[in-house]
What we know:
Layout: H1 4-15, H2 20-26, H3 34-52, H4 56-67, H5 78-93, H6 97-107, H7 117-129, H8 133-147, H9 157-166
Amino acid sequence: MNLGRVWKALILSVFGVGSASQDLAAAPAAQLSDETHQKIAQLSSKGDDYAERGRYAEAVATYVQALELVPEPITDWEASTWLLAAIGDAHFKAGSYEQARAALSDAMHCPGAIGNPFLHLRLGQAQFELGNLDRANDELARAYMGAGKDVFADEHLKYFDHLKTVLKPPNNGDW
């Protein structure tokens, strides 16, 4: 999926993966049956391809197909974290902020999501676009605290500019 330089760098630094399909390929085979793992990985890769081409509705539909293969409860599986993150990211890029917020909020209940700067950033951006400024402030601050201003590098300036109106400046004054 076309997640931009910062998203990929964060995933690589935090989890050692770069996309939904790469995350699934790196997951231990013991977590899912080989057959299920392979099907999810194939669908994730297909979803990533759609997202890279800006075909977000098709990407979401494909990620949802993959998510439906994850055993219940889906909140126990890392695959769900990255599939829900991919769904949320695709919805955000398509301008479907309510759907992005819902998917990213669901992702926060899955392994490895809490504390991930990109997930907090994207959830904060969706909240911002929906006018939920208290929630946006919290999520954008978490993203900033987790990765500094670099997490905002490829994003519209309005998000970081807004955050600077909410937080006290760093002691050295250098955002």
